[in-house]
Write a structure and sequence with these properties.
Largest sheet: 7 strands, mixed
Helix content: 40-55%
Distance between the termini: 82 Å
CATH class of the largest domain: Alpha Beta
Bound molecules: phenylalanine
Strand order of the largest sheet: 1-4-5-9-8-7-6
Number of strands: 9
């Protein structure tokens, strides 16, 4: 029987090492180790082996089984490796790859993202409100009654029910104060609408970003510091900023902000409006809320607002505002 084991071992090793593919290997496994395989058959012969020889024979058979198993495993990895090498030999790694078309963000979105990040670092949260507004949120609460001349500057589109397309996102500031007690520190990016003739510098729908900070002891110094930080982050530390006295119904005092920066072509540009929240605005909010948490004797605040299209035009040197809404890929692909 010892001889049988020996010759079976030689036969198995020869067949396994000659196998060149998976199915030959599987056939060899079945032939030697399978339920009706040769090694199994030999094990059954143990019954006729004299009792005293059984341990030695058992060991021989076990050795045979593990030798064949190991040989099968080695052959398996050899065959896989050969298959890999064969597959890769077909592959020319120097061929150019398949380029994936890559989209990019709209220049306005890029600018908005930067602006939002900057204000978020200063602790401003993003606030949202409806584009279709009530006259009260858009005008009356902002100290702009129906007969106020400032309404002409912000003439907008009215719905038959008297609601309107908001002419600025200042309405969001009112909504925030209506629903949240101070302190509040928010920015409100979003669309605003005006009845402007569309031309190279005007759109009837544009994007605005307004901000509001109300708490105890908020000062003009806070307003200046916040906006200077913001514009320097956006346009570089060398940016010059000038606060020019102006009028807005909802702030007092009010300013327009002029900026001069290399990134904007080195000219003074009028970029934003801002000011300290007018006490009349706080009073309107108090009246609507039915409490005094926005009592102008207790809290103060600043507000600001600017249009993003004009900013994007200057930052990206875009000559015509309409390019920002035409969705011409030849234009957009440049960003
Ligand atoms: N709401 C003003 C506008 O649309 C901008 C502004 C906001 C001015 C807040 C002052 C304070 O023109």
């Amino acid at each position: 029987m010892q001889d049988q084991v020996e010759s079976l071992r030689n036969e198995a090793l020869a067949i396994v090492s000659a196998a060149t593919d998976q199915s030959a290997l599987e056939a060899a496994r079945v032939r030697f180790l399978g339920k009706n395989g040769a090694v199994t058959a030999l094990s059954e012969g143990m019954r006729h082996v004299p009792k005293e020889d059984r341990p030695a024979m058992g060991k021989l058979l076990n050795d045979l089984r593990s030798t064949v198993t190991t040989a099968l495993e080695e052959a398996q990895s050899r065959i896989l490796e050969q298959a890999d090498t064969a597959a890769l030999s077909e592959l020319d790694l120097t061929l150019p790859g398949t380029a994936r078309a890559r989209g990019s963000l709209h220049p306005l979105t890029q600018l908005l993202d930067r602006a939002v990040q900057s204000f978020r670092r200063m602790g401003f949260a993003i606030a949202d409100g409806p584009d279709i507004e009530t006259e009260w949120h858009c005008f009356d609460a902002l100290n702009t009654p129906a007969d106020h001349p400032a309404r002409n500057d912000q003439d907008t589109f009215y719905l038959p029910d008297g609601r309107l397309l908001r002419s600025h996102t200042s309405s969001v500031q009112i909504r925030v104060m209506e629903n949240t007690p101070p302190p509040v520190r928010i920015i409100a990016p979003g669309s605003a609408y005006r009845r402007d003739e569309v031309d190279a510098t005007h759109l009837a729908q544009f994007t605005q970003m307004e901000g509001l900070y109300v708490a105890e002891h908020v000062t003009l110094g806070d307003l200046k510091g916040t906006l200077e930080f913001f514009f320097r982050e956006l346009f570089g530390s060398g940016t010059e900023i000038q606060f020019r006295p102006h009028f807005f119904p909802f702030t007092e005092p009010s300013y327009e902000i002029d900026i001069r920066a290399e990134a904007l072509g080195g000219e003074w540009m009028e970029l934003a409006g801002c000011g300290m929240v007018d006490p009349a605005v706080f009073e309107a909010v108090c009246k609507r809320r039915g409490d005094r948490v926005y009592d102008p004797g207790r809290v103060s605040g600043f507000a600001f607002g600017f249009g993003l299209e004009r900013l994007a035009m200057m930052v990206s040197r875009i000559p015509d505002i309409r390019m920002l809404v035409e969705n011409d890929l030849r234009f957009l692909k440049q960003f």
